[in-house]
Design brief:
By secondary structure, the protein is of the alpha+beta class. Helix content is 41%, strand content 23%. Strands 1-2-3 form a 3-stranded antiparallel beta sheet, covered by helices on one side.
Length: 79
C-alpha cells in the first residue's frame, strides 16, 4: 500500500492548478476546480490543516480518476 503525503487544502489547490485545473468559484472555505477535460472537484481549505486521508483518496480516485501511485509521482514531480 502506498503512503499518501500529508497535504493541506492550499497545497492541493496549488498542485491541481499546475496539472491543468482552474478555480471556478470559492464559497466560504471551499474551492471548486474544473479541468480542461471536464473533471470537477471541491477542496476544503481550513486554516492550512492537512486534508483527511479518506477525503484525499476520494478526490484522487473519484474526482481526478487516477491511481494513488500516479498521483504521488505527479505530486512529487510538481513540488
Amino acid at each position: 500500500m502506498t503512503k499518501l503525503p500529508p497535504i493541506s487544502g492550499k497545497e492541493l489547490v496549488s498542485f491541481l492548478e499546475k496539472i491543468g485545473f482552474n478555480i471556478i468559484r470559492t464559497k466560504g472555505s471551499h474551492v471548486r476546480l474544473k479541468s480542461e477535460d471536464g473533471k470537477y472537484t471541491t477542496v476544503p481549505i481550513h486554516s492550512n490543516k492537512e486534508l483527511p486521508k479518506g477525503l484525499l483518496r476520494k478526490i484522487i480516485r473519484e474526482d481526478l480518476e487516477i491511481e494513488l501511485e500516479e498521483f504521488i509521482e505527479l505530486y512529487n514531480s510538481k513540488k
